[in-house]
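Long-time lurker, finally posting.

We've been working with Porin D (Ectopseudomonas oleovorans) and I want a structural starting point before designing mutants. I don't trust myself to interpret raw outputs, so I'm hoping someone here can both generate the structure tokens and explain anything notable. Sequence follows.
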Amino acid sequence: MQVMKWSVIALAVAAGTSQLAFASAQSESNGFVEDSSLNVLTRSLYFNRDWRNGNPRAADGKDGKAEEWGLGFIGTYESGFTQGTVGFGVDAIGLLGVKVDSGRGRSGTGLFPEDSDGRSQDDYSEAGGAVKLRVSNTVLKYGDQFTALPVFNTDDSRLLPQSTTGFLLTSNEIAGLELNAGHFTAMNAQNQTGRDSYGIAKSVDLIGGTYSFTDNLSASLYYADNDDVAKKFYGNLNYNFDVAEGQNLGFDFNIYRTKYDNNTVATDGFFGNGVEGDRNTIWSLSSTYGIGAHAFTVAYQKSSGDVGYAYDIGDGGGTVWLANSVQRSDFNSKDEKSAQLRYDLDFADYGVPGLKFMARYVKGWGMDNGANTEQEKEWERNLQVSYTLQDGPAKDLNMRVRQATYRADDGYQGGKIDEVRVILEYPLSIL
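Top reply, 14 upvotes:
Generated this for you. Predicted structure of Porin D:
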């Protein structure tokens, strides 16, 4: 994630000494219709998760596999802004998920809603809209939308993404500085269609921003109050520089500090005897060295405090911007420490543009699950191959195969899990 940590004072001083944005986006508006866009992303997702020591969802604990295939359509319409000092516009989203293959006993992948008998529904859909206004380089939006903020992030790891309802203010009045403020009251789950099916307890308020000091150095600081659930601070610092011709080195630091207002949230699934007022601090530091087509990454992550780091508690399933949050595990348990080794290869330098490969290994240790005093451990290995068509009638079609192997002591977090995801995505620009 390219966002960072900085103190409030440093951020304010940096903003105050920066030049104002060179031009007003609103003054350059071409009109409501003229700047409109309509895009449809088609996604095919095959998901296979194999619990090697038995599916915890199964009544007898023996049915070890969840396996489903679906086709999703994600439509987004964004109007332009009317001309004038204050511009007005509208946005709309439409989501449709269709079951291609599933069956009783193979559900539970999170791709589809389930009936009372445990069978996945044949299809599901939802639609929403938002109104927006813009003054200069500041946009205020209210309604249904997607978010990608470190303290409130709608998840897009299944067939269809989460969506949320509320206000979001985004300001870019100062060059290099983006400020955000929001108030949200509902969120829809990835595999449900009812309003607030994901469940925000009351509301989530957030504020924060990102400042780019240079092209190589940037910082962020965010705060969110999930009413009656938790309060979170997030910070990040990111620095990249060229070492030599064709070589670069980057550092990325992330940190969350969380206070839980609800002892159930603090305890459930995040290890430790949680009580109201429990706190957690979790941070990660990663470094990536790139040379030509190759990139090598090392990362270290540590969780400390009364309980582990809880997210997906009304703040979105993607609110875990940490180096060791990977395909299966987030390595976010109480007192857990984890380390990662990663390798990336871009085949463009070998005459195959669009083809990429990634392999990583993460090991966690020292976590406290509250059940015993033993030092437990877990590890995960991920492999991914992706290819994007560069030309032809299916240009931009992206194909990914993701494989995960997860192992943990004594059934910890599911114990032994093998997982395969095959994802095909085709973006279509209609307007």
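Before you design anything, note these points.
The chain has a mean pLDDT of 88.
The first strand starts at residue 37 and ends at 51.
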